[in-house]
Structure formats: structure tokens, C-alpha cells
Amino acid sequence: MANSKTTLILLIAFLLSLFFKLLIIEGERIALLEFKHGLQDPFGRLSSWVGADCYKWRGVKCNNQTGNVVKVNLKNRDGFSYLGGEISDSLLDLKHLNYLDQSLNDFQGISIPDFLASFERLKHLDLSYAEFGGMVPTHLGNLSQLTYLDLHGVI
């Protein structure tokens, strides 16, 4: 009897942890969709950003064990299919993000968002030649895990 209670408790604990993990991952998917909504994508680079499986989306990489989003790489590789618009603070819901690349896009002189300095796990940040303008937020110096920063071409 005690053995079956222990098994039941372990099963319930496992199911609850799985449920909460799915809620967290769903929150990250919603954050990415809100981020996409703020972008201008005239060439359809984010057309794969549909459905529930954000690990299949172009430019998004998830941790194989946890499923959390760890990388958003939207670098413009071909030189003409740029992204623009606004960078939404919904990205802050990506608590495990350690790599963000928005380079070679066209953000038409908007300021680098201050909230980018809030990513505690960010190791790689590339905003080079993405047509950002204004002052570089001094708070970027607070990114204690950062090992790569490229801001070339900030106007």
C-alpha cells in the first residue's frame, strides 16, 4: 500500500513538473510571436514562425534537454532580406537566452533598447550594421556573462 502511494506521489510530481515546463515553453513561444509582431519582415524571413514548435522556427534554437529558447539569430545573411521595426521587450520572457544576433538588418535609426541590458545569461550580442542610432545604453556594461559584443555601425 505504501509503495503504491509513493509511486502515485512520484507520478503526480512528474506530471506537475511536465505541466509547468510546458507552460514556461508556451510563454517563450508567445514572447517570440510578440517580438515578431513588432518587426517589419518584408521578405518573409520569419514565415516559419508558426505553430507550436518554436524549436523548428528559422533563427531560433532551443536547449535540447529543457526546451527553453537559448538563441535568436536573425542576422541578415543575404544582404537584402532585412528586418526592421521595433525590438519588443517581450524578449525578456526568454529567461535562458544567451545569444542574440540582429546584425545587418535595418532598424532605421531607432535606439538600442535599454532592456537588452537585463539579460542575465546573455553571452553573445551582435547588433552590428543594423542601423541602430543614438547612444549605446551604458547598462549594457551590466551584462556580466557577455563574452561577445559587436556594435559596429551604430549611427
Helix-strand topology string: HEEEEEEE
Question: Percent of residues in helical segments?
Answer: 10-25%
The portion of residues forming beta strands comes to 5-15%
Q: Give a quick account of the main beta sheet: strands, pairing sense, barrel closure.
A: 5 strands, mixed
Q: Rg from C-alpha positions?
A: 19 Å
Structural class of the secondary structure composition?
alpha/beta
Indicate the multimeric state.
single chain
Provide a compact summary of the structure.
The protein has 155 residues and is an alpha/beta fold. It has one helix at residues 2-38, and strands at 39-40, 60-62, 69-73, 84-85, 99-101, 124-126, 148-150.
Q: How would you describe this protein?
A:
With 155 residues, this protein is α/β, with parallel strands linked by helices. The chain contains 1 helix and 7 strands. The strands form 2 sheets. A 5-stranded mixed β-sheet has the order 2-3-5-6-7, with no helix packed on it. A two-stranded antiparallel ribbon has the order 1-4. The protein starts with a helix and ends in a 5-residue tail after the last strand. About 6% of the residues have low confidence.
How does the SSE layout of this entry go?
Elements: H1 2-38, E1 39-40, E2 60-62, E3 69-73, E4 84-85, E5 99-101, E6 124-126, E7 148-150
Parallel strand pairs: 3-5, 5-6, 6-7
Antiparallel strand pairs: 1-4, 2-3
Keywords:
five-stranded mixed sheet, globular, 155 residues, alpha/beta, 24% helix, two-stranded antiparallel sheet
